[in-house]
Amino acid sequence: MSGVSKPDDKTSMNSITAPVKQPAKTHTRRRGLPTSRTWLAAGQWFVTLLLCAFLIVPVVMSIMAGLTVNYFKGVSSGLTLRWLGEVWTQYHSSVFLSLEVAAMTLLITLLTGVPAGYVLARSKTRLSRIIEEFLVLPIALPGLASALALLVVYGGFTMFRMSVAFIVVGHVVFTLPFMVRAVAAVCASSDLRTLEEGAASLGASFFQRFVTIVLPNARPGIVAGALAVLTLSIGEFNLTWMLHTPDTKTLPVGLADTYASLRIEIGSAYTILFFIMTMPLLVAMQWLGVDATGQRSAGKQRSAASRSKPTPTSTP
């Protein structure tokens, strides 16, 4: 019809594309500015690096003090291994004693903590929860309080009080909850009951089920608990300081003596020795992917089991 005007093609195209071009220009202008998420990530990195420096710099300075000729002059005085040699000459017996105590503590916690963790994981009664809380109680109490309790009960037995076994008992009281919780966490997460029932139906005894089913499935928790027990036993000071005698001086107690009575280079060299003993255990914990409770190992075990399950296929 002649009375109706047709819209111009160019005008209609411009009216459609014009609103689209404007946001594109705005987006281009904003791309050069950091977003709030970028600022947040940068702030998190800054705080993390600052905390790492706050924790690591004192350790590095202490190590350097043990390797310098004169701490007050710094590295300019020269580097030496003299202080490490003196520490080893005077306190090598404390090093071997700490390793002996840690080994005996680990053996006792393995023999008692693994069965206890398995029983607590299988039992769902209120009594088992109460026992578990009592086992964790030494962690909540200060080490001095636990040592005082041991002295009150067993201090009258002179031979036992003066022996290394007294320190071992204290370390077992302190480290046993870590082994029990690590094993219990793994045993509770894995389907041990179904596996044991299947083995029992085939005629396996309890001992056979425990050795062939429970222990292999609880291995991540046992490794986690063992590493935690070793590191805690070697580094325990508060409890050991009250229980030790001049003949049963462990590594942390010797470290306190060096800082209290000798020059700072000797104490720093002792710190290096302590560092050399504990770092391999900490690296092993990270390399094996375990923690003090066994939760991370249990999670890895569950994820590996889920990946090994066959995917269901739809039937036509």
From TrEMBL:
Gene Ontology cellular component list: plasma membrane
Entry-linked SUPFAM superfamilies: MetI-like (SSF161098)
Transmembrane domains' residue ranges: 39-72, 101-121, 133-157, 163-184, 222-243, 269-290
Positions of region (Disordered): 1-31, 297-316
Any Pfam family hit: BPD_transp_1
Presence of keyword NAD: no
Highest taxon in the source lineage: Bacteria
Record-annotated ABC transmembrane type-1 domain positions: 95-285
A biological-process GO annotation: transmembrane transport
Signal peptide start-end: none
Protein name per Swiss-Prot or TrEMBL: ABC transmembrane type-1 domain-containing protein
Species classification: Bacteria, Pseudomonadati, Pseudomonadota, Betaproteobacteria, Burkholderiales
